[in-house]
Amino acid sequence: MRERLPGLLTGCASAALAVAAAAGCAAGPAEPASEKIKITVADMPPTTQENVRRQFLEQVAAFEKANPTIDVEPSESKWEAKTFAARLAGGRLETVFQVPLTEPAGLVKRRQLADITEEVKKLPHAAEFDERALAPAKDPTGRVYGLPVSEFALGLVYNRELFAKAGLDPEQPPSSWDDVRAAAKAITAKTGVPGFAVPATNNTGGWIFTAMTYTYGGRLQKEEGGKVVATFDTEQSRAVLGLLKAMRWQDDSMGTQHLRNAADLAKDFAAGKIGMMIATPSSYTEFATQFGGSPEAFGMGALPSAGTPATLLGGKVAVVSPKATPAQRAAAVKWIDFFHLKPRYDAAFAGRTAAARAADKVPVGFPYVSLYGPAVAGPVLAAEREHANVPVAHFKPYETGVAAQQFVTEPAVAGQDVYAALDTAVQAILTREDADPAEELGKAEDKVTAALDRAQR
């Protein structure tokens, strides 16, 4: 999924990728040595983003100067759920393109991505990738079919000022869902503000529900008879809806406005009208710059646990077309390294970028999921934080907690349909006191079955 402010997502679903496994799997002949190696690269910013597009093209020029035998042809094409399968089947994909973390497993299984294991081994710091970040692009044998370019992990954002008013310690955010429930009750009782809120529309209700289910040890899909099927009505999922139902109707700690989207919650949170919600660290950008929230009020902890330290991992992976020749494949990995990875392992470069962003009053210094282990990630983060303009200490509970969590990716098949179906279950629990978790999950599972079947034909 693409990340959406405030740390929720713009809705990235797993598209139906029912394309013949053999489509475009054979690599062509190598280019003559006397000719330049030509590669096409997707995800160039559109003309409506003039500054960002110019920076992109400057990077292309810098790459070609550093690699005079490679010719890069950029394209504005981006991954879209509705068109990806057709573009893949028609052989119209670029040499390098990006897909959400939900996609590589299915693409690898159908042999629709190039194996870049040997090229990756030659990259700087290749042995120092965080395996949690690299895992979504690996097959069961450990072969690599893509490189992570952006990843984020959900956590719990909270209003430190409301915590203090409720007699809670702003330095100690809840670490379990029982703690969240208790804190929400205290905030509502002492301030009248809803202590906890979740979105329930635009598929984000299902997305947040999925993340919470992971912390109970549950999953929303499993493979059965060679196909992926929905597993909504489980003990873990019922526990999530049971918690929300108790907080809504027994504790009265979630307010009365429930058919809201991510932007509604972000605005209210910045205004001090919500005590806690689930988001990513980058939600601070919208909190501070768009909605005028007080930096001193923003706090963040890791996603609470119900016995399974886990969080939902989202982001994108850069992959290479299976039609690429060996020379194109090598050139493609060089481009991915130059454009996407260098800012994550080159501390000097990261520092210069952070200084420029801070000069433009863009928030700098909040944590993110690094693609590398501490030896590489540490100096980069330190270089960035020399220019920090956010309350770095307020993110410490998140950084400490997320380091020990398992990263679990989103549902791999028909993800958007999964989230849409689960939206209705969350809405029912929050708007009808008599709604039964098991019954609502059963309805949602029935609703998504057809979409799963279509996606796997």
Please provide a written account of the structure.
By secondary structure, the protein is an alpha+beta fold. The protein folds into two domains: 3-17 and 28-151 and 314-394, Periplasmic binding protein-like II (D-Maltodextrin-Binding Protein, domain 2, 3-Layer(aba) Sandwich), CATH 3.40.190.10; 155-312 and 406-455, D-Maltodextrin-Binding Protein, domain 2, CATH 3.40.190.10. It is built from 17 helices and 13 strands. The chain has helices spanning 50-66, 84-89, 104-109, 117-121, 131-134, 160-165, 177-191, 204-215, 235-250, 262-270, 283-289, 326-345, 347-359, 374-385, 396-402, 415-431, 437-455, and strands at residues 3-4, 8-9, 37-41, 70-74, 96-100, 147-153, 155-159, 221-224, 227-230, 276-279, 298-302, 310-320, 406-409. Strands 5, 6, 12 and 13 form a four-stranded mixed beta sheet that branches. The protein has a three-stranded antiparallel beta sheet with strand order 10-7-11. β8 and β9 form a beta hairpin. α8 crosses α16 (415-431), α9 runs parallel beside α16 (415-431) and α13 (347-359) runs parallel beside α14. The longest helix has 20 residues, at 326-345. It is globular, with a radius of gyration of 23 Å. It starts with a strand and ends with a helix. InterPro entries: Bact_solute-bd_prot1 (IPR050490), SBP (IPR006059), SBP_1_CS (IPR006061).
